[in-house]
Structure formats: C-alpha cells, structure tokens
Amino acid sequence: MDFELNDEQRQMKMSVREFAEREIAPHVMEWDEAQHFPIELRPKLAELGLMGVIFPEEFGGAGLGYVEYATVIEELSRVDGSVGISVAAHTSLCSNHIYQFGTEEQKQKYLAPLASGEHLGAWGLTEPGSGSDASSTRTTAVRKDGGWVVNGSKNFITHAIAADTCVAFASTDRTKKSRGITGFIFEKGMKGFAPAKKENKLGLRASETASVVFEDCCVSDRNRLGREGEGFANAMEILDGGRISIAALAVGIAQGAYESAIRYSGERQQFGKPIREFQAIQFKLADMATQIDAARLLMYRAAALKDQGKKTTKESSMAKLFASEISVRVCEEAIQIHGGYGYTKDYPAEKYWRDSKLCTIGEGTSEIQRMIIAREILKVANG
Ligand SMILES: Cc1cc2nc3c(=O)[nH]c(=O)nc-3n(C[C@H](O)[C@H](O)[C@H](O)COP(=O)(O)OP(=O)(O)OC[C@H]3O[C@@H](n4cnc5c(N)ncnc54)[C@H](O)[C@@H]3O)c2cc1C
C-alpha cells in the first residue's frame, strides 16, 4: 500500500495547480457574479490534455487513469468548482459513455474530438419528473424508417447549451421500465433538439446548467449508443466513475476553503493575537484537515480500484457521500473562522460553501448514495 502520488503524478498536480492559479483564480468572482460560463478556457484545458485525461492517446486522450483524473478535478475545483464540474461532466459522463459503450465508428467520430477538447460534451439523464428515480424517464424514442423519433426533455444538464455532443436516454419500450431505456448521441444543431431554460443557481454559477428539449427529433440508428434496452444499466456503470469525480470536486472545494481559513486565521487579530492562536480555531482547523484527508483517501481508493479494472459501485458511492458531506461542513467552518467577513463576497469562503452544496446532490443525492451503499453491504451480509 502506497499513500503517495508518484513523481509524474505530483508534477501533473503542480502543473494543474499553477494553471488554475494563473488562468482561473483572477476571474472566479467575476464569472460567478455574471454566471459566465468560461468557454474560452477550453483550448487552454485541451492544450494541457485535461479534456480527455482517462482516454487512450489513439482517441486524443492523455492515456492516464482515474488517480490522475481525480487529481486534476481536485486541483481545478480548489480554485473554482465550476471549472471542475464542467471538466467532470464532459469527461467521465459524456465522453466516457461513448468510450465504454460506443462502436468504433462512434469513438472515431465523437470521442476523438471530445477527448482532444475540440468539442464539448453533455450527458442527459435527469428529467423534470425523473431525478433520483432515473428509470422513470418520460422521454421516448420510437422506431421510424430505420431510425428513431425522440420526444421529451431533460433538465439540469451541464453544458446543455454549449455542448457539441450530448448523450441522452429515452425509453424505447415503456413496458420494460429500466430495461427499456436506450442511450443515444445527439449533435448540436440537429433538427428537433434544442437547449432551453438556463438555471440561475446558488453555486457553481460559472458552470452552465440548462434543459434540453426533443421535439420529433429524428436520430439515425447509427447514433444509438449501446444495445437497445441497456441504456439505464450502462448509465449506472458510468455513474460509478462519475461519482469519483464528484468526490474530487468536493475535496478540491473543501481544500480551497480550508486554505483560505488557514490564511485568514493567521492575519486576523483579536484580543491582541492572531485568531489561530485560540484553541477553538485550532480545533476547527484540525477537524477540517482530518476530514479532507479522510475524504481524499476514500477518493483515491475508489480511483485506484477503478484503474485496476475493479467494480467500484460501493467505493465510489462511499467516496462521493463522505467527501460531499464533509465539504459542506468544512466550507461552513471556513465561513465561521472568517467571522462577518466570511459572510461577504470580499472573501472566498461564502462561494466555496455555495459551490460545495451541489456535491451532495449531483450524480445522485446523499440519500441515494446511502441506499446504494446499504444495498452493496447487505448483498455481502445476506450472502
Ligand atoms: C448543478 C447541477 C448539475 C447537474 N448536472 C447534471 C447533468 O449533467 N446530467 C444529468 O443527467 N443530471 C444533472 N443534474 C441532476 C442531478 O443529478 C439531480 O438533481 C439529482 O440526481 C437529484 O434529482 P432531483 O433533483 O430530481 O431530486 P429528487 O429525486 O426529486 O429528490 C428530492 C429529495 O428526495 C430525496 N429522495 C428521492 N428519492 C428518495 C428515496 N427513495 N429515498 C430517500 N430519499 C429520496 C432526494 O435524496 C432529495 O433529497 C445536475 C443537477 C444540478 C443541480
């Protein structure tokens, strides 16, 4: 067992950190206030290979694993969770679904430009009436002339407006419920496929979250992703990887908040000394550091097992659940350590806290993670 990143991984972590400090940090509050999705960052992220970390080089990726991928998402999110979630949704949801379940032709056509960062990806599972219960999808795809006609909508989709490629799910046989759901690939500009309402969010405001609508959208059978009726099962497998990225998002946000609290507690004087000389503040910092370390270890365990090709349903959910819940707590304590200033937009603590909350919701709420973990541990307990 080795708890250290190797030299290349450490070097990569530092280069992503430098990039984030240089290219993202100066704009964070401006983008947040304006809800500006920084699409202009994409070529720079692509140049560093950050838009396709986990894909083989033959498809334009960096040929690395989940350990490196989680490290990248953590470092981006340490500076701005909006950039972290954007790269995560693009990589481990949209692009990875095509990589895992696409045909060779689909990988060449869609994955290669996604992994190289030339294109941006979205992944649409959630619908207005179908969130945690994702198998109750109302969007339908009906066979016609050798292709499919899709009707329905998806909401809360990251990059719904900006994406060039969108993987989305539709029921192809209602009677089969979750076994009647099929994945499809949609392209920006397809007739009958259009983005709709952009959400005005509490946090991660510089990430784009919007709805998409399908109105008699004709899609060729060549755009069917995976076998008919296997879309839901495939989506659940994709979420095993995606949840590692949400754990990384949560760890990165918590780390950023913790560092801001460390800094401030050294600068702020009360009763004639820096507030971090008070034991009450030291204990908060100690708890924050311990919780972040524990979350990071769970994140890396899930990532390392994934890189070994193991099934990580339980480990991914544990990492996501724990990291997201401690992230909210750590960020709240960071505000507390900043006192009244933490409640203002002059300091970063309030934004970290707003951003952290999404981690307990996206890619399955904390309640759903507990259900998954319970199911997995009881499978073993019940033999
Ligand atoms: C910023 C943002 C980005 C997102 N990006 C994407 C994306 O790119 N693609 C995508 O497909 N989706 C995306 N989502 C959607 C996200 O995955 C869903 O919001 C999430 O799965 C919860 O679904 P819901 O919002 O419909 O809540 P609901 O399912 O309505 O849940 C409401 C509450 O009920 C609880 N609950 C539900 N069922 C149970 C149960 N059986 N037992 C106990 N409690 C239960 C939930 O835990 C929650 O507390 C995004 C959401 C946000 C906010």
Can you describe what's shown?
The structure is a single chain. The chain is of the alpha+beta class and about 375 residues long. About 50% of the residues lie in helices and about 15% in strands. The strands form 3 sheets. A 4-stranded mixed β-sheet has the order 1-4-5-8. Strand 2 and strand 3 form a beta hairpin. Helix 1 runs parallel beside helix 4 (about 65-80), helix 4 (about 65-80) runs antiparallel to helix 5 (about 80-100) and helix 8 (about 280-305) runs antiparallel to helix 9. The longest helix is centred in the middle third of the chain and has 37 residues, at about 230-265. The protein is globular, with a radius of gyration of 21 Å. The model has no long low-confidence stretch (mean pLDDT about 100). Bound molecules: flavin-adenine dinucleotide (FAD). Flavin-adenine dinucleotide binds near residues 125, 131, 361 and 367. Flavin-adenine dinucleotide (FAD) binds near residues 157, 201 and 364.
Helix-strand blueprint:
Blueprint: H1 7-24, H2 28-34, H3 42-47, H4 66-79, H5 81-101, H6 104-115, E1 121-124, E2 140-144, E3 147-158, E4 165-171, E5 181-187, E6 193-198, E7 209-219, E8 224-225, H7 231-267, E9 269-270, E10 273-274, H8 279-307, H9 313-338, H10 349-356, H11 366-381
Parallel strand pairs: 1-4
Antiparallel strand pairs: 2-3, 3-7, 4-5, 5-8, 6-7, 9-10
Helix pairs in contact: 1-4, 4-5, 4-7, 4-8, 5-6, 5-7, 7-8, 7-9, 7-10, 8-9, 9-10, 9-11
The structure holds flavin-adenine dinucleotide.
